[in-house]
Design brief:
4 strands; 53% helix; mainly alpha; two-stranded parallel ribbon
């Protein structure tokens, strides 16, 4: 047995063991066909990183990620002056190419990894490894581990902390990389370089001005900061950062975002309250799924007045099951395209052994095609999340 066959056989044993511990739903079986359909398509596509697209308005270099704020538009009173905000309405003229490439990575690399997990066929792992090399290892094509120039605003700011939400799409990439390590598709020194990239990025997120601004955001942005740091810390074995994320969930996210009845008032105040409530619910659930440990189960955490993630899922579930009952303002965009297969339902169903959540999850669309919906749907390969590779 060669090294690659050994890793594949080991992963098969690990997968069988972990799956046996969660008999109430077989995600690998449910998603088998959709995983292979996507992965077979991606096998024939080459990695493409941000260095392939020049961002003319960026103050950074070719390896620096750049994006512009979605809801910022030219001021009719001063067309050449600073842009103004129109909440909920995305400006299609703003630079979005780097984010589209990041989303492409987040679609392709985890799907290829998931295909390897369920088949143990090396071509899937090899192609997934190509993406990691291109984005995080190869000095000619890699992205710098910061988002200093993300979500810039013309005439206002060259980059903002709020832009860090763009790398929420790296959370499933990091999760997939942990699986891929067991495939033998990457040399150990290459995996070390990938891990170092994520460690450097997590350090930037937790020390830079932009990173600290996003950490302190009071709505879904603050939640997504914690979800990212938690997963990057898990992948890089940084127990201190992971512990900080658990503490932040208990002391900041739940008390400041979840109302006693489970609703998310900061998201309901937006022009897309349904979308943002689903999104923040998923992000909060991601933190629970990533950061919970024996003796420190975030799924079970509640404040003295009863606030907790289960309250939020119970609040939203009826409106996922029947959106016509949504009692709040309808979203200004894409209301008809939601809900999709929200990962919070799967994670909560397993955490609470609640079959109603699992059955609802199974009824929903796992593969939305509307770009705006995909952008707010960062967990697309749940088979990578319901078990551990080691």
């Amino acid at each position: 047995m060669n090294r690659r066959e050994f890793f594949a056989a080991s992963a098969a044993c690990i997968w069988s063991f972990r799956s046996a511990a969660q008999p109430q739903i077989d995600v690998a079986k449910i998603d088998h066909a959709r995983i292979l359909a996507a992965a077979d398509q991606y096998l024939h596509q080459q990695p493409n990183t941000i260095t392939s697209v020049h961002a003319a308005r960026s103050e950074g270099g070719p390896h620096d990620y750049f994006s512009e704020g979605d809801y910022w538009w030219p001021d009719p009173k001063s067309p050449t002056g600073p842009y103004i905000r129109r909440d909920g309405f995305s400006n299609p003229a703003n630079f979005n190419d780097h984010r589209e490439l990041l989303i492409r990575l987040s679609l392709q690399m985890p799907a290829l990894t998931a295909a390897w997990v369920i088949t143990h066929k090396s071509p899937y792992a090899a192609k997934a490894a190509d993406h990691l090399r291109a984005w995080f290892v190869n000095p000619d094509t890699r992205m710098n581990p910061n988002l200093q120039f993300a979500q810039a605003i013309h005439g206002v700011a060259p980059g903002r902390g709020i832009g860090i939400i763009d790398t929420l799409h790296l959370v499933e990439v990091a999760r997939a990389a942990g699986w891929l390590e067991h495939s033998g598709a990457l040399k150990s020194e290459e995996m070390d370089t990938v891990r170092r990239w994520f460690a450097d990025y997590a350090t930037w997120m937790t020390t830079s001005k932009n990173g600290l601004e996003e950490r302190d955001a009071k709505n879904n942005h603050g939640t997504c900061w914690v979800a990212q740091v938690a997963e990057f810390a898990r992948f890089t074995h940084d127990d201190a950062k992971l512990a900080d994320c658990r503490e932040r969930f208990r002391t900041m996210l739940v008390p400041n975002q979840i109302a006693p009845d489970g609703r998310l008032p900061l998201e309901l105040a937006r022009t897309k309250p349904y979308s943002y409530s689903l999104f923040d619910m998923d992000a909060l659930s991601l933190v629970c799924q990533i950061a919970s440990r024996s003796g420190d189960n975030l799924w079970a955490f509640t404040t003295p007045d009863g606030r907790g993630i289960r309250k939020t899922i119970d609040f939203m579930a009826p409106y996922i099951r029947d959106k016509s009952k949504w009692p709040f303002q309808h979203d200004v965009e894409y209301f008809d395209d939601l809900a999709v297969r929200q990962p919070s339902l799967l994670f909560a169903g397993l955490a609470y052994n609640d079959d109603a959540y699992l059955q609802l999850w199974k009824t929903l669309n796992p593969d939305p095609t509307v770009p705006e919906i995909i952008r707010n749907f960062p967990v697309r390969q749940p088979v990578l999340w319901v078990s551990e590779p080691a």
